[in-house]
Amino acid sequence: MVKVTVCGAAGGIGQPLSLMFKLNPYVTTLALYDVVNVPGVGKDLSHIDTDTKLESYLPENDGLEKALTGSDLVIIPAGVPRKPGMTRDDLFAINAGIIRDLANGIAQFAPSAFVLVISNPVNSTVPIVAEILKKNNVFNPQKLFGVTTLDCVRANTFVAELSKDKEASAFDTRVLGGHSGETIVPVFSQSAPEVYKELSDEQKAALVHRVQFGGDEVVKAKNGAGSATLSMAYAGYKLGHALLAAINDTPNIIESTFVYLKDSKIKGAAEAFKYINEKLKDSDSSDVDFFALPVVLSSNGIEEIKWDILEKVDAKETELLKIATGQLSKNIAKGTAFIAGN
Ligand SMILES: NC(=O)C1=CN([C@@H]2O[C@H](COP(=O)(O)OP(=O)(O)OC[C@H]3O[C@@H](n4cnc5c(N)ncnc54)[C@H](O)[C@@H]3O)[C@@H](O)[C@H]2O)C=CC1
Ligand SMILES: O=C([O-])CC(=O)C(=O)O
């Protein structure tokens, strides 16, 4: 029996993401929550002849409580998307409060659920969720995931375009750091070595830049009508499905996610925290408490952090990681301070 809750289910990401979970055989109940339009989305999906039971809730009549109670996995694509000319950080003013309120609901009604945060700016919204869960004494770092899967998906697609003989599905690129611009660091030296070795320095730089700013490509092409929704729904589903498979005892699944490190008991967290903060960050900027890294999944959630990839990356990638930590420490501190100041 697995209940999945999608918060922001009537949105551009929420709808296709909910469709995919309606088709997932692990899911017995799918609860949709949104502040608008969700009864229609829920009714529509409920006609699909898969066995997953559909529930949909607006905020009135304790909707959030009902959507979250008994939930095993909560996925959050709630909040506003970018328009051309905006950075992800420009979304903080609106989305931080939305995420705080949803996190308070999770702390109260689904304190032991796995939580996947899609809403931007991920580098700050994930720290917001962690702070709320900590305040309520229900924080378990094994169960909190910042969704950076779309960066990996893009990296696989873009590197395949440069490969002579391999399709996108042949790649499993690791992307480290965070989820915005220069905080996104694909490490092709570790995951696509054959293709990577053949590229010139200019080609390597262009490939990395394309992954870092892939979101902008979509924002520009949509021309005011939002940001990535369909590729994001796919990516969110990919991580969610991997987690459901791990919960159901499929061994050795590795996915990348923006994971909490500081004071965490997860295997590899202390080593990751030390390496990032001592070797990749200026001593005068605040701690980088979260970082996107490959993790091994189990029925407990994040079982192990594969931090040693940080030691293996090449000199140029190390330089990029150092640039990433500067921005990331500010983004994380901003999220944490938002809750400390509330
Ligand atoms: N992590 C990632 O890689 C990516 C993250 N995103 C982010 O995902 C978020 C959602 O994007 P879209 O689906 O395109 O936006 P959208 O505007 O189409 O949908 C957002 C939905 O959230 C709902 N919502 C607003 N406040 C809410 C609340 N308090 N509780 C529940 N639902 C609420 C809205 O009613 C709407 O249905 C944005 O912040 C966007 O930047 C988008 C793409 C990739
Ligand atoms: O670019 C955006 O604002 C949405 C996003 O995070 C992405 O597509 O990577």
From TrEMBL:
GO BP, sorted A to Z: malate metabolic process; tricarboxylic acid cycle
Top EC class, one word: oxidoreductase
Binding sites annotated in the UniProt record for substrate: 82, 88, 120, 154
Chain sites annotated for binding NAD(+): 8-14, 34, 95, 118-120, 232
Keyword terms, alphabetized: NAD, Oxidoreductase, Tricarboxylic acid cycle
Pfam families in UniProt: Ldh_1_C, Ldh_1_N
Active-site feature positions: 179 (proton acceptor)
Listed InterPro entries: L-lactate/malate_DH, Lactate/malate_DH_C, Lactate/malate_DH_N, Lactate_DH/Glyco_Ohase_4_C, Malate_DH_AS, Malate_DH_type1, NAD(P)-bd_dom_sf
Cited SUPFAM superfamilies: LDH C-terminal domain-like, NAD(P)-binding Rossmann-fold domains
GO terms assigned for molecular function: L-malate dehydrogenase (NAD+) activity
Listed GO CC annotations: cytosol
Catalytically driven reaction(s): (S)-malate + NAD(+) = oxaloacetate + NADH + H(+)
EC number(s) stated in the UniProt entry for this protein: 1.1.1.37
All copies of domain Lactate/malate dehydrogenase N-terminal, residue ranges: 2-146
Source domain of life: Eukaryota
Residues covered by the Lactate/malate dehydrogenase C-terminal domain: 148-338
PANTHER family (UniProt xref): MALATE AND LACTATE DEHYDROGENASE, MALATE DEHYDROGENASE, MITOCHONDRIAL
Subunit-level organization: Homodimer.
Family that this chain belongs to: Belongs to the LDH/MDH superfamily. MDH type 1 family.
Protein name stated in the entry: Malate dehydrogenase
Species the sequence originates in: Komagataella phaffii (strain GS115 / ATCC 20864)
Classification lineage: Eukaryota, Fungi, Dikarya, Ascomycota, Saccharomycotina
